[in-house]
Amino acid sequence: MVKYHLALPGSLDEKLAEEISGVVRESFLAANVGGTYTQQQSDAFLSLYRPELIRQWIPQTGGVLAFEGQKLIGNGFVMARQEHHEREDGGFLYGLYILPDSQGGGVGSSLLVYLLRVGNTIGLRNFKGKATMFPGVLDFYKKRGFGKGEEVSSRVGDVTIPFLEIHYKSSPWQYALNRILSSTITRCQSKKSSSSPRVASAPE
């Protein structure tokens, strides 16, 4: 049974950061078997998800992690970053990856729902992201209400990595409901004992 957890500031230890890095790496490389990205582009992209960098994100971001038993099988993050969005209520979605063997069972959809909920909680309504160019990725987001923007790129050192921009706007009722649901998550967190796992549980 898959359980979803919030990754909170101070909750991400070195071991969990390594597991997140491993999920991104395994998922990315499995999707890239057709050679969508060159070896140089792949190495540059994966360098952004080194464990030491992941641990630096959490104080600035909200994360949702999917576990099957004690095994991390998926993760995603949302950040309020003005350099990525021109609106004050704009957020940036990134790092949504699921292990290949765990794909196709709704884990990605659930992670996305929780990420939008976390974003709404901190006042974000308009979301952007950079989707990889792998076949099927854009369809995944379009089926869940995301719009497609233009092709964009990021530079990592001397390497240019192409992406497709995606965007999503929470409706007023969705925004209000998610803020109510997320206030329940906050109350649950405050009641958890010190022997809780590394991250705080999110309700189904």
Give keywords:
204 residues, Aminopeptidase, 8-stranded mixed β-sheet, 6 helices, 37% helix, disordered C terminus, alpha+beta
Describe it for me?
The chain has 204 residues and is α+β, with helices and mostly antiparallel strands. The protein has one domain (2-201): Gcn5-related N-acetyltransferase (GNAT) (Aminopeptidase), CATH 3.40.630.30. The protein has six helices and eight strands. An eight-stranded mixed beta sheet has the order 6-7-5-4-3-2-1-8. Helix 1 (14-31) packs across helix 3 and helix 4 (107-121) packs across helix 6 (172-191). The radius of gyration is 16 Å and the shape is globular. Mean pLDDT is 84; it is low at 185-204.
User: What is the CATH level 1 assignment?
Assistant: Alpha Beta
- Name the CATH architecture: 3-Layer(aba) Sandwich
Overall spatial form = globular
| Major beta-sheet overview | 8 strands, mixed
Write down the CATH topology.
Answer: Aminopeptidase
